[in-house]
């Protein structure tokens, strides 16, 4: 699909894996006469729920929408505090602002870069209502420790599982608990519907989130306009417009049917990177604890201090010159203007997130990348580090 000549030699960061099955199922949805939320969305919810073992599932137009609805469904609002990680995407924290609550950022564990339960405990106040746990890069957060804290202090847990399909913690799939858990199907994520998300949790909370996801109507459009529908509806809350379309659900169903093979390829690429970089003294490969199954969404490589004079930025430039796209996950929330100014954060308030942010680079990872492309990435990274080591030794 690389029609663009100028892109011919570029190793893209996270190209979507889209095949004939996806294309024909979306076309079929278009031709079916029902394009927005309908039977395909219902089937996608069912199949996805089955796959992760969720009590109930609600398809949405983004993971951000799911996180927002989770907080609204839990009645989190002004005067409340929600504890979350500073090392996450803006959406995780923006939704806390959207409901008028106060985000309380905490630092991460140095190995997994997940929310540190000890720091969460110290951040709990009488106003704390929820812990918003991010499963960073696909490695589940320490859920036993976070659940124990939540139970002791009467807090809800919301999981940002944008990276965590299909991750498991002590043999339990992320999304299978009664916690509200939000998955992302954004274009770069492990399973994509171009844009989309899925909220899982107890059927009681998912029922409430479903009502909130479609204007707060007492029944959805499909029920209203379908064969057995009626014209009557009732607004029971000023809700949102967060529903998924059947076009997206068709794409999601096709992706889900091939998901295991695609994940197998992610595991292969991850293992290739690990094998190539584990023995390089200046590099730190991602950690995977024995208690978890890692979803292998991001391959976050860390440079050791002094590995390159120009540090991580120099590595990114070096790779870019060789046509290799990379990214950084994430610029910590407390460094962004809005949060820095509103809450008066200093960069060193969260020293572990800051230090790791400065040393990290996310390498290309997608089932759509070839072995040759992966070999080019490995060669690019090792040549940068080894060339420097050789120069330094001379
Ligand atoms: C991608 C991502 C989101 C947002 O997902 P959308 O589906 O684009 O709303 C939220 N949190 C994290 C950690 C993400 O990486």
Please give a structural write-up.
With 394 residues, the chain is of the alpha/beta class. The chain has helices at residues 20-31, 39-52, 63-73, 90-98, 117-123, 143-153, 203-213, 221-225, 246-257, 259-277, 311-321, 337-343, 351-359, 371-393; strands at 56-60, 81-85, 102-106, 128-134, 156-160, 168-169, 172-173, 180-184, 197-201, 283-284, 292-293, 299-303, 360-363. The chain has a seven-stranded mixed beta sheet with strand order 1-9-8-5-4-2-3, with helices on both faces. It has a three-stranded antiparallel beta sheet with strand order 7-6-11, with no helix packed on it. It has a three-stranded antiparallel beta sheet with strand order 10-12-13. α1 (20-31) packs antiparallel against α9 (246-257) and α3 runs parallel beside α4. The chain is globular and about 80 Å long. Bound molecules: pyridoxal-5'-phosphate. Pyridoxal-5'-phosphate binds at residues 62-64, 88-89, 91-92, 134, 160, 162-163, 184, 186, 197.
